[in-house]
Amino acid sequence: MAQAWKCAGLRWAADGPVLTWVGGRRSALVRGKRVAFGVAEGGVRTCVGARGHACPVRAGVSGRSTGARCEECARLDRAHSVAADTMADDPRPYRVYLAWFGPGLVKVGITAYERGSARLLEQGAVCFSWLGCGPLMAARRTEELLRAALGVPDRIPYVHKRAVRATLPESESERAAEIAGLHARAVALGGWPEALTPEPFRGVDHAGVFGIAGAERGPAAVAEIAELVAGGAIGGELVAVAGPDLHLATERGVVVLDTRLMTGWELVSAEGEPCGVPLRELKRAGGVQDGLF
User: How far apart are alpha carbons 14 and 107 in whole angstroms?
Assistant: First the structure.
């Protein structure tokens, strides 16, 4: 029987994206290389637990869940997150940022200073700029101020991010124009917390890192994987990696695999198997604006 591995998710390291595995193994994700794996026959997807602790009941979870947690573990995980506002005494400095994922898709957010741009890479931000830096609660108040004043959300669904990747502007200046304008409006506002130090606009572009723009851009994706299933397999050439998403060139065209769907499964190596998992058509950019605004 082939050895099975449990995926612990995709991480963005200093030298690029890697798949991590329970037990410490890492697999570098290099564009142009083949990525192939299958789900063990008869396998069941189980909860990945919370905050580094295993699920006490090894609960089964839906194949379509991107969190791969049961209800109780999901509650515990969120209760100890920055987003839940339960860490007011966190002494670390935080940064506020504007992130752009495509035309009309801008969000404001915060991330720990020590993480650098890792959070933006994890979210699939095509370009971003810092807005300011300060204590956690000052950063949180600034995030809320800007969300209301600029009319931008603090979350954007991945379905909308994927819909625009094939039609992004070609130049970095075009991709940065929207957040440059919003940054100027943000710094002109009054009411920023005194503890937060504003930062000048410096656009950082990830399109080349992801492989979704320029000469290295591969074919546009036509579908996304809806879920993994026991006995199913997927394999293809890696043409792009954006946030948690792998763009794989398969015999059915380029399909997007959200690596968060891999966690909780026992996975085995695969070779030339056809794309044997449920797919759904990738939504196009035409419907994005109506969905958000």
Answer: 24
The pair phi, psi for residue 61, each rounded to 5°, is -130, 160
Number of neighbours of residue 261 by Cβ within 10 angstroms: 22
Exposure of 82 in the CB half-sphere (CA atoms within 13 A): 19
Q: What is the rounded CA–CA span in Å between residue 6 and residue 179?
A: 38
Burial class (CB in 10 A: 0-12, 13-18, 19+), 44: middle
Question: What's the distance, CA 233 to chain centroid?
Answer: 23
- Amino acid 150 reads L
Neighbours of 42 (CB within 10 A): 8
Q: Tell me the torsion sign for CA atoms 74, 79, 83, 87.
A: negative
- Residue 82: the pLDDT is 63
Q: Give bridge partners of residue 225 from the DSSP assignment.
A: 279
pLDDT tens-digit map of 139-189: 999 999 999 999 999 999 999 999 999 889 999 999 999 999 999 999 999
Judge whether 154 and 147 are in contact, CB under 8 Å: yes
Output DSSP code: residue 40.
Answer: P
